[in-house]
Design a protein that fits this description.
Length: about 900
């Protein structure tokens, strides 16, 4: 099924005729090899005769020689699994084309030409969900990164910009709604119950931004007046039964449009903006020009079926895709190595948007938590790559936390160094200079230097060096001088051993122990390997708060007393730093416990200090609940594992749970009081009520550890009285981990209450797969045979198996059974949906950083996958890199 990989005789490639079978080694594509394409395609016309089993595509391309490229006497049009029906050149049928592997190569003389190609595709057979596919009876497309070549032959690379005129035709009853990019220019009925529509997108775009949707959909509509007074018609298209759950998505869209005008001066540029929700989707959503296609998960919400977290995620993803209209569409990427140019920038934009909507402090903490849980392990493992990679075999594997989230952190550092006003001047200049172009990361950096007045010569290393820098910090005190010593190292990664120091902007403050305050924050930029800075006027040794607001994506290593951390957890005026002090307190303790470096008495003292700090968090009535909820969260398993060169996941999990038990016991009355107080707030969506729901869930987590019987009763009561999904899911999460009847009854109730609602049934699968229940593995095996489980739906697969792969006690079961289950899943899913299958490789790829017995079991599973014939390019690349 993976035609792209092995050229064969049938492809008509003469050199292949006598050659021995080629080992399945997909080629390595290198950034350094970029060459402009010899031809330009100023205009593209597409005609679709739509059908679920078969869709006929007629594509007409205007091509002209590219004045900026070396001339060529052929044009190579990419295809992927396509069969040609006919080719015309300048209106006449031609036969002198040939297939070279999956691509069509056509001889072409200098000058302008028109190429017409007819081919058929089968949406119903497309289980990869790339190209044109069927989902619940509707047709839709996904083209990023290289899906357009699965629809028709085309120079499928982001530096080929074309205007699109798209005509679609099909049965009215089956496809009453016909959508594509841009504006609808005409529509009409044709014979035999058929109709058609024609859409024109005046903005030249790369093929990865093409989209088409045809189906039985209904819309919530609204309108937005842009800053220059243009009216834009907005629509969110869903299945009829989902219409009541579209209000939040529409609100989020209008807020995004307004915010981008105010924060970045960006105005929308078409008369319509359509969003379509699709339940079979590989990723979160896609920014196709004027026609964003979304996973239903990031569109549909009401209080009964979506959690507060879901509401925020929807707002963030709607913002993200909308913001791509400028950072991605108006200015696109020259090649896929520049992916962070659009993704890192757009993630930063969506983070700043959500900060403005939800509150800066909590959003920053959440973003850092994701970075540490997902990107840090990536950066310290076999799949580490710079935010601008140098090579790949399958680009789908590079839609990573590094390109997205670390990419955003790199831009955020520029913003921290320049200040928000100058940073905006930099982005203004970038948009002005490169509007309508396919640009590079270098273009962005240059615009930032010129527009913001920064010198980024050394800073460019952040684009080429992978690995999370480590900064060793020590503070000494003598007389009235405090001396800060900083030392940075960028760790070796598989791509490169020797690294250079990078500029690391560190926001810091020195607190006076007596007054609990400081004289103002400073920004120190650590550009050299080592640096010391003296601060005068400190009669007593101050308390250092460093990397405030997480000003740099680094790991800070320092000897710091428990006393200082307790001080910062209670006094720091930077909310992130306060959170960080709580995390550090727990991380230091658990690392020491897991390394057997504490006496019983020292361990007791450590627990006491943590309990004391947490008690303050629970009872400090100046804290708002939303922030309190953050401060209550224990560091996650993956972040803890990152602290060890070689981690024992079983031990880390056990010690983390033991600490929860100790805290639950020590703080039982405070936790119950907090839960009671928070339960008095109304079930509304305002900030205070949302904060209350967050602390309720956290309180139950600790109580479930400390006093399971009491917690089970409280959780069952919360479940039964729940008026929101947040309360219901929070209670069920705790119950799912506690063996007993309350658990079984509520799980059955939950399923019966929401059966038929795919997104909520996903939650039901995920809760059981991620639970603390000792039999979680058995539960997952049973759920894999549940009638609602379906390998063809990525959301469902993720809800069971991603949740499972993130469940430390189950995935890392000492028997190796968890590893085997994930490997079996990869092998079963790879032939159906390679892109999604490959996303399950990284959890197994961590083996080098895991204790030897488990490491051997993980490695054996990777080897079993690697030894399988016919692997997709996606899975092949991830598995070989992970073993390499
Ligand atoms: N470009 C999309 C986004 O970040 C992500 C995506 C990539 C979606 C590839 C589908 C396929 O918004
Ligand atoms: Zn994006």
């Amino acid at each position: 099924m993976d035609i792209a990989r092995t050229p064969s005789i049938a492809d008509g490639n003469p050199q292949m005729a006598d050659a021995p079978p080629v080992p399945a080694q997909p080629p390595l594509i290198r950034r350094a090899d970029y060459k402009p394409f010899p031809w330009l395609v100023p205009e593209t016309r597409l005609h679709f005769d739509l059908g679920i089993e078969n869709t006929r595509v007629v594509s007409t391309l205007k091509v002209v020689p590219n004045p900026d490229a070396a001339a060529d006497d052929v044009i190579r049009l990419n295809g992927d699994g396509l069969q040609v029906s006919s080719v015309k050149l300048d209106g006449l049928p031609v036969k002198n084309w040939e297939m070279d592997g999956p691509d069509l190569v056509l001889p072409l003389s200098a000058g302008a030409h028109e190429i017409e190609i007819v081919n058929d595709v089968s949406p119903e057979k497309n289980s990869q969900l790339m190209g044109l596919y069927a989902s619940n009876g509707m047709l839709c497309t996904q083209c990023e990164a290289e899906g357009f070549r699965r629809i028709t032959f085309f120079p499928d690379r982001p530096d080929i910009l074309s205007t699109y005129l798209v005509k679609m035709e099909g049965p009215v009853a089956q496809f009453p709604v016909l959508l594509s990019n841009g504006n609808k220019v005409s529509a009409g009925e044709s014979a035999g119950g058929r109709h058609w529509a024609e859409w024109h997108d005046p903005w030249p775009k790369p093929s990865y931004l093409f989209a088409l949707v045809a189906g039985d959909l209904v819309a919530r509509t609204d309108s937005f007046t842009t800053m220059s007074g243009r009216e834009v018609d907005l629509a969110v298209w869903v299945r009829a039964e989902d219409l009541p759950r579209t209000e939040h998505a529409m609100d989020s869209l209008k807020k995004s449009m307004k915010w981008d005008e105010e924060a970045f001066g960006r105005e929308y540029d078409l008369d319509v903006f359509n969003i379509v929700a699709v339940s079979d989707f590989n990723m979160g959503a896609m920014e196709n020009k004027g026609l964003n296609v979304f996973n239903t998960k990031y569109v549909l919400a009401d209080p009964d079926t979506a959690t507060d977290g879901d509401y925020d995620a929807i707002e963030g993803v709607i913002g993200h895709e909308y913001f791509h209209n400028w950072s991605g569409n108006r200015v696109t990427c020259r090649d896929w190595f520049q992916l962070s140019l659009k993704e890192g920038f757009t993630v930063l934009r969506d983070q700043l948007f959500s900060q403005d909507m939800q509150g800066e402090a909590v959003k920053r903490i959440e973003d850092v938590r994701v970075l540490r849980a997902v990107q840090f392990p990536e950066d310290s493992g076999p799949l580490a790559h710079p935010i601008r990679p140098d090579s790949f075999r399958e680009i789908s594997n590079f839609y990573t936390a590094t390109v997205y989230n670390k990419g955003a952190e790199v831009l955020r550092m520029m913003r921290t160094m320049a200040g928000p006003v100058a940073f905006r001047q930099g982005t203004d200049l970038y948009f002005e200079r490169h509007d309508g172009e396919a640009a590079t990361c270098e273009d962005f950096v240059k615009a930032m230097e010129d527009g913001a007045g920064l010198d980024l010569r050394q800073f460019r290393l952040w684009y080429s060096q992978a690995g999370t820098p480590k900064v060793e910090v020590s503070l000494t005190h003598k007389g009235d001088t405090a001396t800060l010593a900083l030392k940075q190292t960028v760790p070796p990664t598989p791509d490169r051993i020797a690294k250079k120091p990078m500029p690391i902007p560190l926001r810091l403050a020195l607190f006076d122990r007596d007054s609990g305050s400081h004289d103002g924050e400073q920004l120190v930029i650590l550009s050299e390997a080592e640096k010391t800075i003296a601060f005068e006027g400190f009669a007593r040794s101050p308390v250092l708060s460093i990397n405030r607001g997480f000003s740099a994506p680094v790991s800070i290593e320092r000897e710091v007393s428990t006393e200082d951390l307790v001080f910062l957890a209670a006094h720091d005026d930077d909310p992130f730093a306060r959170y960080e002090a709580m995390q550090d307190l727990v991380v230091a303790h658990l690392v020491a416990v897991c390394s057997d470096s504490l006496t019983g008495a020292a361990q007791e003292a450590g627990r006491k200090a943590i309990a004391g700090a947490l008690r303050k968090v629970l009872t400090d009535d100046r804290l708002d609940d939303s922030m309190r909820g953050e401060l209550m969260m224990l560091p996650g398993q993956t972040y803890l594992a990152e602290q060890f060169l070689v981690a024992d996941p079983g031990r880390i999990h056990a010690e983390r749970e033991a600490l929860k038990v100790a805290l639950g016991v020590a703080l039982e009355s405070e936790l119950i009081a907090l839960h009671e107080r928070a339960s008095t707030l109304p079930a509304t969506l305002d900030h205070a009520s949302r904060g209350a729901r967050k602390v309720k869930a956290q309180a139950l987590v600790y109580l479930a550890a400390g006093n399971p019987d009491v917690a089970a009763k409280m959780a069952a009561a919360q479940y039964d009285a729940a008026q929101t999904m947040t309360d219901r899911q929070g209670a069920l999460m705790v119950l799912t981990g506690l063996p007993g009847v309350a658990r079984t009854d509520r799980l059955i109730d939950f399923y019966n209450r929401y059966r038929g609602n795919e997104l909520v049934v996903d939650k039901w699968f995920a809760l059981q797969a991620s639970s603390l229940h000792p039999d979680a593995i058995e539960h997952v095996k049973a759920l894999a045979n549940h009638p609602d489980f379906n390998l063809r739906n990525p959301n469902r697969v993720r809800s069971l198996y991603m949740a499972f792969a993130g469940n430390p006690h189950a995935f890392h079961a000492a028997s190796g059974e968890g590893y085997r289950m994930i490997a079996d899943l990869i092998l079963a899913l790879d032939p159906i949906n390679p892109q999604t299958a490959a996303r399950f490789v990284p959890p197994l790829g961590r083996w080098r950083r895991i204790e030897p017995q488990r490491a051997a079991l993980m490695r054996a599973e990777l080897e079993r996958i690697a030894a399988t014939d016919g692997l997709s390019r996606d899975t092949y690349e991830q598995v070989t890199r992970s073993l390499g």
